[in-house]
Input
Amino acid sequence: MKKISDIENDIASIKEIMERSSRFISLSGFSGILAGVYALIGSAIAYYLIYYPNSPFGYRFYYVNEQDIVVKLFATAAFVLAASLLTGVLLSMQKAKKLQLSYWNANSKRFVINVSIPLVSGGIFIACLIARGYFGIAAPACLLFYGLALINASSYTLGEIRYLGLIEIALGILCCIFPGYGLIFWAVGFGLLHIIYGILMYNKYDK
Output
């Protein structure tokens, strides 16, 4: 007869196998840290473009209305997004190889589909807002749709992503309540929170 400790080990092994078969677990915590760093760098560039040399605590949307500034902000955001995605893909592939898992499988496909639906629809919505001059709503909309994307995909990957999504949504709501501070909320949501989340996930799953 098996000992209780052996039975517990068997149950743990079965649970781990089921977890691997039903969820995309190759997400890299270190990629989250780097994504946060990229976002903070992008925030610093955006601050310089919008506010320099004055204080960031004023309501100065008229600067953003300048076409040249808008183009530079879009370019900065595109660079941050591209760098984050590329880093995430490369490091997740590396982690999948380490875990002897297939990176592109049914679970990763479900994850990508479920995270893309809110992100793509949100991106189109935000582009429409900006095209009509509603710049003050763009920052909270980014946080809200990103949070919804994380929650929508949390069933197909690490469960902790759900909590990150909830915090992103809370920040988006606060950003709506306190207009004029969108860049600060954006830096906290996409920069600081990603770094904290990445450190936690790295210590828990990547070591």
Q: What stands out?
A: The chain has eight helices and no strands. Residues 50 and 63 are 6 Å apart (CA to CA).
